[in-house]
């Protein structure tokens, strides 16, 4: 009985990981249930048993991805103290992160599909993104909480948009130029000029 429960948990984890990587790298329309199941080394039946539907898999992958950011922001704040926005932005816009679609940030990879998704998915996204913005705001200086939150939203928006734009460039030189310009703007947005 215990082995079966462990195997079931491992299958669910594998399916969720495969769904997350697949949606991030190929988008919602670019992958199907069979492809996710195959990437997880599972059957389509196992997929439906564990994740319910493609929409259910996307919702779970979105939650997983945004929770990764929720864990990462405070880690950067602890490790880099007042210089954390610079360290975070350098990583976020860096060429290694730009090239890693499957394991890159869910904020950038999944937001375009959230726009076209159902209310439940958009509500989860909004809740998680507000949490991320509030965590970022806690690590910023400002006259008021509202000012810090506005800075956080600007910082996030610049990074997400720049990562998406730089990933779409045909040449690495142009991707670097986009990332560099965005880095400067992101630092200005949070008062690290």
From TrEMBL:
Keywords: DNA-binding, Transcription, Transcription regulation
Pfam families assigned: TetR_N
Start-end of DNA-binding region: 32-51
Domain of life according to the entry: Bacteria
MF-aspect GO terms: DNA binding
Residue span(s) of domain HTH tetR-type: 9-69
PROSITE patterns in the record: HTH_TETR_2
Protein name: DNA-binding transcriptional repressor AcrR
């Amino acid at each position: 009985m215990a082995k079966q429960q462990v195997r079931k948990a491992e299958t669910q984890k594998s399916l969720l990981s495969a769904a997350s990587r697949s949606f991030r790298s190929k988008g919602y329309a670019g992958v199907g249930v069979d492809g996710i199941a195959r990437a997880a080394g599972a059957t389509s039946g196992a997929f439906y048993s564990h994740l319910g539907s493609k929409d259910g898999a996307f919702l779970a992958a979105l939650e997983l991805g945004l929770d990764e950011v929720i864990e990462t922001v405070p880690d950067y704040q602890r490790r880099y103290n007042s210089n954390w926005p610079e360290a975070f932005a350098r990583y976020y816009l860096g060429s290694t992160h730009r090239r890693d679609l499957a394991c890159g940030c869910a904020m950038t990879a999944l937001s375009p599909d959230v726009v076209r998704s159902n209310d439940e998915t958009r509500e989860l996204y909004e809740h998680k993104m507000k949490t991320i913005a509030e965590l970022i705001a806690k690590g910023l200086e400002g006259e008021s909480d509202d000012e810090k939150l506005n800075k956080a939203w600007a910082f996030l928006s610049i990074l997400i948009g720049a990562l998406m734009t730089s990933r779409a460039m045909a040449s690495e030189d142009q991707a670097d130029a986009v990332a560099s310009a965005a880095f400067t703007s992101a630092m200005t947005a949070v008062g690290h000029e």
